[in-house]
Amino acid sequence: MSSIPIYYDWNSTVSCPRCYYGSICQFTTLYYSISLESLLYTSLQSTKIFLILFIGIICNTVSIVTFCQKTTRELISGLYRLWIAIIGQLGTIILIIRLFIIFNKKNTGIINCFVLDYLIYVLSSLHYSLTACMAIEKIVVAYKHLSFDKEGSRHKAKIIIPILIIYHFLIAFYKLFQYQLRADLHSTHNYFLSTFEKIINIIHLILPIIFNLFSPIILIIILVKHKITLKPDVSLWSNFKEVLYTYRRNIISPYILVIFTIPYLIVAFYFNCITQSWQNQLYLSVYLIYLIPLMTSLFIFIFPSPKCREELYKMYHRLISYIYSRRY
């Protein structure tokens, strides 16, 4: 068997094969993923990160309560929005636990490291998959128009959501074991595992971006066609502007998600072999940006929606009235 050249890890604490890092060389970005354990080797400030995360907890709580209301839950994609907020909340809580362990103990056990990283990966992938389902449903609504069956769509969502949850938890199960120190990096088992991991990570990164990137374009085309049918005497440009103005909120939300994901996608492919500390810090920064949508359902799905925003205001007034009645 040919020997593997050994390089000093960029954290200067251990000798590792090229592109591997960590206390026992258990981490690598060769498969387009990263472990939060590498925060130990960066200068990112924990205080700012935790502040953002705790604000995210508050925002997600408000989102969940809002989407639990009957009026918002019965909206188109209402179930998807509710579960996006729930998954985002779970992901944010686990992320806080994981970072707390990293920043305070500086040493994580196998269960803490593998299980928490596994859950963060699953919940973030599931979150983006649910946003892709929302994007698809919007296209279906626009295409079917008046013949769209809202109850049928809700029934399908009740089937699709559990299937996606089970799929993501099972497909990523290998991550519970992927960081074990491998004596032979060229074994057949490791080759198939690494190939499988690359394919899965690429799919989970690219597919949600594709759906969120192109769904607004398809949505606009379908809606403009409807407008032309209803208003044949109006110019194409006028119909196009009217569609953009009327459905601007449905168009903006997917692109916000794309903005958060594309930097991580670019860096994951460009710096898939980390050899220097500044590359690791860049990788981690864009990865944390990639996780921001887990905490921003309030801004992406509630504030842009007039009906959700109205329900939020009603909840706020009910809360103020309750507090006032308790005081007096």
TrEMBL record:
Keywords attached to this entry: Membrane, Transmembrane, Transmembrane helix
Membrane-crossing residue ranges in chain numbering: 49-68, 80-103, 109-136, 157-179, 199-224, 251-271, 283-303
Keyword Metal-binding carried by entry: no
Organism: Adineta steineri
Name of this protein: Uncharacterized protein
Source organism, top-level taxon: Eukaryota
